[in-house]
Amino acid sequence: MIRIVTRSRIAQLAEDARAAIDRAERAEATTAEVGAILTQAMQELSAAQQELLLKAIEIRRLREEQERGPVEGETLTVLLHHGEPHTIYASRADAYADTATHGAPPDQVWQRCDERPAAAFTWRCEAFTYDPVSNGFRRLNMPAEKTLGEAA
Questions:
Q1: Alpha helix (H) ranges present in 1-152?
Q2: Taking the model in full, what pTM does it have?
Q3: CA distance 38 to 44
Q4: Cα–Cα distance between 122 and 145 in angstroms, integer?
């Protein structure tokens, strides 16, 4: 088969080739953009999966702790603000740290409370321990009993 190629046909083929190259370059640029977006999305997905895994572990730990129930001698710390319960903590250190977020000096030296009523203190920590006999928590440091005078 014989084909006659004209100048206009060659010019048209050259123009088509330039247009094809332009489309290929735009496709490569778009592919690079999509690749960068995909890489970022994969990193975000990985971070979200890691966070989800950590939350699942914490939920499992809390469920096991809840199912276990309190253990004899286990203590909780109740943070009192002017004698009113503010928050319950697993440790005294956590309670002390929380008072710092409410304006108490973080380096405050905590001392044992005296006989004044709890309302006399801005912040006060009371320890409670689990007592299986009563199926509840009791104050760890009970105030000394005061003897009453005999009736007249």
A1: 7-68, 92-101
A2: 0.46
A3: 10
A4: 25
* Separation CA 121–CA 107 (nearest Å): 17
Reference 79, options 67, 63, 97, 64; nearest CA is 97
Spatial CB neighbours of 106, under 8 Å, sequence gap ≥ 6:
97, 100
Q: How far apart are the C-alpha atoms of 146 and 149, rounded to whole Å?
A: 10
pLDDT digits (tens, 9 = 90+) for 25-56: 999 999 999 999 999 999 999 999 999 999 99
Largest CA distance in the chain: 139
Rg (CA), the chain: 37
Q: pLDDT digit string (tens) for 78-113?
A: 888 888 888 888 888 888 888 888 777 777 777 667
Taking a C-beta distance cutoff of 8 angstroms, is the pair 76, 128 a contact? Answer: yes
